[in-house]
Amino acid sequence: MPMTMGYWDIHGLARAICLLLEYTDSSYKEKKYRMGDAPDYDRSQWLNENFRLGLDFPSLPYLIDGAHKITQSNIILHCIACRHNLCGETAEEKIWEDILENQIIYNCMQLKLKPEYLEVLPATLKLYSQFLGKQPWFLGDKITFVDFIAYDVLERNQVFEPKCLDTFPNLKDFVSRFEGLEKISTYMKSSHFLPRPVFTQMAVGGNK
């Protein structure tokens, strides 16, 4: 029985999850909720059923896998990654994995503050570039779930500032390397892939 991944009809926090599900050949279906237009931003599609799904802490995104009902995007990513051996292996790798995950998610959330975010973007990208160095993936030779989060936020940066990676060739190569993965490339060419919008209409700077 396929898993169910629920989220708004945007890519937002769900895209890294979908990319990981596709990469791991996981069987899943998407449940998309539509938010209404301004000024009300009607969320009734979600609110009418959020407490009927058996989620302990109802929120979006969620992943329902049989008896396992999971919320919070980072926890969902962890669960999928652990099942498919896409986590750090050594104690040191696990530490860096946690640091990177939280740093990337923090930067991702700051994207909504577009003017302020763009001011510090070069310095932020420099840190990622220095950490990646000459490695193919952020933890070394093995791809892990943090690479899926990293790709997501780097690609979003290019949406808001198309030339932001021009001075960081290793980050540009990372993005190309990720998009060149066979399963990722196939998914991005399919009708299931949702490149836009990035945020809901309620988010500052969203849908642009």
UniProtKB/TrEMBL annotation:
Keywords: Cytoplasm, Transferase. GO terms for biological process: glutathione metabolic process. The keyword Cytoplasm applies. Residues 66-198 form the GST C-terminal domain. Its main location: cytoplasm. CDD domains: GST_N_Mu (cd03075). It is an enzyme of class 2 (transferase). One of its GO terms (molecular function) is identical protein binding. One of its GO terms (cellular component) is cytoplasm. Its EC number is 2.5.1.18. InterPro entries: Glutathione-S-Trfase_C-like, Glutathione-S-Trfase_C_sf, Glutathione_S-Trfase, Glutathione_S-Trfase_N, GST_C, GST_mu, GST_superfamily, Thioredoxin-like_sf. It is found in: Cytoplasm. Residues 1-88 form the GST N-terminal domain. Pfam families: GST_C, GST_N. It catalyses: RX + glutathione = an S-substituted glutathione + a halide anion + H(+). Homodimer. Belongs to the GST superfamily. Mu family. This is Glutathione S-transferase. It comes from Saimiri boliviensis boliviensis (Bolivian squirrel monkey).
